[in-house]
Amino acid sequence: MNSHLQRQKLFLEGSIAKALFVLALPIVLTNLLQSAYQLIDSFWVGRLGVESVAAVSVSFPLIFLMTALGAGFSIAGSTLVAQYTGAKNQKQVNHVSAQTLIMVVLTSILLGSVGFIFAPNILRLMGVGQDVFPHALGFLRVSFVGLVFVFGFAMFQSLMNAVGKTKIPIIIVLCTVLLNLILDPLFIFGFGPIPAYGVMGAAFATLGTQFLASFIGLVILLRGKQGIHLRWKNFKPDFSFVKKAFRLGFPASIEQSARALGFTMMSFLVTSFGTLTMAAYGVGGNVLMTVIIPALGISIAIGILVGQNIGAGNKERAVEIARIGSLIAFGILTLCGILSFVFARSLATFFVPDDTQVITEAARFIRIMSLSFGFIGIQMAYNGVLRASGNMIAPMMMTLISQWVIQFPLAYILSKHTSLEFTGIWYAFPISNVIMFVIAYIWFKNTSWQEKKLTENEEEIIEASEEILITEGIRNK
Q1: Which of 129, 362, 423, 455 lies in disulfide reach of 280, CB 3.0 to 4.6 Å?
Q2: Distance (Å) of CA 187 to CA 149, 196, 208
Q3: Where are the alpha helices (DSSP H) in 163-198?
Q4: Per-residue confidence band for 151, with pLDDT thresholds at 50, 70 and 90
Q5: Per-residue buried b or exposed e for 225-258, using 16+ beta carbons within 10 Å of the residue's own CB
Q6: Contact of 304 with 468, CB cutoff 8 Å
Q7: Are 188 and 197 spatial neighbours (Cβ–Cβ below 8 Å)?
């Protein structure tokens, strides 16, 4: 039995825990490498002082928001490429890939230009102090210039995953992350003819490595030896495809944008309490984003298994996958939470080694939110199941409720209208996590997701199941 058939048997009949591990591990490793950019920036910037840490902390949510606004086109394009790959329609694979790249590049140029022009106004609106303002402005503007390269490589990675070539992006990301590790201190602190750019140097280093990654990706696509072969004629605009991509990607863009805008609004609230709170929030946010990576990997793995088993008519097994997967997600994230609680001060010191006040406050933030990490794991597991069944609205609605109905209003009330002050922001995280778990559990249990077919046409159901597998690189063509 070849490896492909062995995997198919494992996913449809074998150990659920083993299948989840086989699927989740490469996804987690890839996401860890991607997050290393932010961690490396935070590590070196932390050597500059609290103002620099605060500048990066207030900038990341804004960059995340711009990236999220364009996420829908990427998702739509990679989904269509996956479907056409399963149908062995190479002409459409090439056409859709080129059209999606055009859309993503134009979107990133537009968003980057808007961000570059209005960066000072946004920072003033957020109430960023004069000690942080110039650092944040420099970091933001360089980051917005490089947004086209961030979008470009993200799209390349999605396209490679869609045709099953997952190893190529991992190799490129690994090399560029290692390069970023070298360039960061050079541009931040200066060396020889290279001047010290401070916080802005971290953005310059990332811009350079992302340009290299996107350039390599474009060369690979034009050479046509890795499942996609782009020719210049493929880049002629196709407006009928634009309409289809918008229809497919709109719900995902709403969800991602709502999440990113929620982070941005939380940053507005945090900045009102000063530089110390901003720096502590940035350190705690880095820990939270790192911990979420395994939850995301498990969520995607659960979605793949559930989608394949629903497509195969194994409804009872799909339900069991959802049950076991959510328990595994809860267990792993709870373990991450316990470790974060125990080593909170060490984690804070890693990011800001020389400021005792920031270390103390960041450690408190980490300890307050860490023991609720398990509930985040369950929520993300449920979202993976619902998406696999074709329900895109429920995850979007839960994100809106989590960010805008619970977390931000709660943080505002606790910080502005109680004696907790900025510590109230920290408590809003675990409280909202528990409340959202209850809502997600009730929603999930009262939804007949296992009965929901992605389409009414049996042939399209099979294609959709193939799409899930191809997108995550399970099939090697």
Answers
A1: 362
A2: 19, 6, 11
A3: 167-189
A4: confident
A5: ebbbebeeebeeebeebbeebeebbbebbbbbbb
A6: yes
A7: yes
Q: What is the H or E stretch that residue 81 is in?
A: helix 71-86
Q: Among 99, 207, 199, which Cα is nearest to 153's? A: 207
> Taking the CA of residue 279 as centre, how many other CA atoms within 13 Å lie in the half-sphere pointing to its CB?
29
Dig out the tokens for 121 from the structure: 């106004």
Compute the C-alpha angle 405/327/440, nearest 5°.
20
State the Cα angle at 471 between 313 and 465, rounded to 5°. 15
- Residue 180 has which token pair? 């970023």
Give the 3-state secondary structure of residue 66.
helix
Per the DSSP assignment, residues forming a β-bridge with 191 are 194
Q: Cβ(112)–Cβ(144) under 8 Å?
A: yes
Residue 450 pLDDT class (50, 70, 90 cuts): low
Task: Look up tokens 């267990």; give the residue.
Answer: 331
Mean pLDDT of 21-45: 78
Chain position carrying tokens 């606004």: 69
Cβ(225)–Cβ(60) under 8 Å? no
Whose tokens are 């049950």? That residue is 323
What is residue 357's predicted lDDT score, i.e. its pLDDT?
94
Pick from 387, 294, 296: nearest CA to 332:
294
Give the CB-side neighbour count of residue 321, counting CA atoms within 13 A.
36
Residue 468's pLDDT band, with cuts at 50, 70 and 90, is very low
The C-alpha angle with vertex 82 and arms to 237 and 324, in degrees rounded to 5, equals: 140
Lowest mean pLDDT among 66-70, 230-234, 294-298, 382-386: 66-70
**Would you say 471 and 79 are in contact if contact means Cβ atoms under 8 Å apart?**
yes
Please give the pLDDT value at position 75.
64
* Residues paired with residue 194 on neighbouring β-strands, in sequence order: 191
Burial 16-43 (b: 16+ CB within 10 A, else e): beebbebbbebbbebbbbbbbbbbbbbb
Structure tokens given for 415: 């910080």
